[in-house]
Amino acid sequence: MASNSVDEINEKQFDEKISKKIVLVDFFAEWCMPCLMMSPIIEEMADYFRGKIEFAKVNIDDNQKLAGRFNVMSIPTLIIFKDGKEADRIVGAVQAEQLEEKLKKYSH
């Protein structure tokens, strides 16, 4: 499900991945329709913000401890990490424009 620009990561890779400057992590599940709707938007943003923001996906079915660690109660949940700490969160599907506006704050 992940493309070249958005890697699917697991618990082992997670902390190293979010320690980079700015990372958006998409918590999703294969069976979640809003998650599937968000996937092309996230791919588009990954291309748009390439070099400024990293993007990753976490399948909550395969990584339940991570979902619990970040209190992911509904999906999709997009969490923006800055230097390893949660900086922002979007719960539910959003339009590309809304996500882009939110990410612009972190792409300087």
Report what the structure shows.
The protein has four helices and five strands, in the order βαβαβαββα. It has 108 residues and is of the alpha/beta class. It has one domain: Glutaredoxin (3-Layer(aba) Sandwich). It has a five-stranded mixed sheet. Strand 2 (22-28), helix 2 and strand 3 (54-59) form a beta-alpha-beta unit. 31% of the residues are buried.
Brief account:
It contains four helices and five strands; from the N terminus they run E-H-E-H-E-H-E-E-H. It is of the alpha/beta class.
Strand content: 25-35%
What is the distance, rounded to the nearest whole angstrom, between the alpha carbons of the first and last residues?
A: 29 Å
Please provide the ordered H/E string of secondary-structure elements.
EHEHEHEEH
Helix content: 25-40%
Instruction: Give the class-level CATH name.
Output: Alpha Beta
Mean pLDDT: 94
CATH architecture: 3-Layer(aba) Sandwich
Number of domains: 1
- How many helices does DSSP assign? 4
Output the radius of gyration.
Answer: 12 Å
Cross-sheet strand order for the largest sheet:
1-3-2-4-5
Main sheet overview: 5 strands, mixed
Number of strands: 5
Low-confidence stretches: none
CATH fold name, please? Glutaredoxin
Sheet/helix structural class: alpha/beta
Described by the principal axes of the CA atoms, the overall outline is globular
CATH superfamily: Glutaredoxin
